[in-house]
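for the writeup, i need someone to sanity check this before i put it in the appendix. the sequnce is what the collaborator sent (i think, or maybe the updated version? ugh). structure was predicted straight from it, no edits. if anything looks off just tell me and ill rerun, i have time this weekend
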Amino acid sequence: MKANERLFDGTLFGVTLLSGALLAMPVNPAMAGGVAGGAGVAVGGGDSDRTPTVGGDDDGGDGTVVEYPETLELTGIVRDFREKDDPNGHPDFEERPDRGFGHYCGNVSLLLGPDDKPEFTGAGWKVNSQWLDSDGNPVCYTMFMPELGDTAGEAGLSSTGAIQSSTSFHSWFNDQPGINMSQPLTLTLHRQADNSYVFDDKDDDASDSLGGFFPLEDNLLGNPGGSPDRNFHFTFEL
């Protein structure tokens, strides 16, 4: 997923990253929150028409240049789960979707619910082919702009993916004793040439030492065993 301003044009959304971890956001975002289940989270909001200069930005138009820090720290909540076949396991984790493994969209509302949490819609579908920008980078289907040279993807058959119900989804981002455990997680985002801020697990020392984004490795509910014995079953709320 490319970290570009068009991805964060003010529309609130949540995505699931099934491998790797990338969190990107523009400067001075109108942060309202966002979530993902699996290995990462992307959130954002702000003004997509803004084109900041490297090293600073005249935000107010009065000639005053704002210098941005090299790093930002964001703290969220990471929740650990057991896979579905484990005692007290969660039915959504390690569940094979009826349409098979893949990329699913539309099962979570683009807006947070009244409790400021992601809201399950059950109106999802499997992605047959990905929406792309003019450079061939994946973009969210809600951000598709043919006038900019984007290539349309294709929505497949309807499916809730591996999510069983609104009840099962509720515990993804809410503490539920006996089902999950949680703790704070702080990510350090690094400023890019366009003044956006990015967390990339490939550039994070802790993730690099673990061979990927595994913030709960041998922690909280522990690793499930088997091969590979990695703690894949978590969500991150920011």
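The two ends are 18 Å apart (CA to CA). The first helix runs from residue 166 to 170.
thx in advance!!
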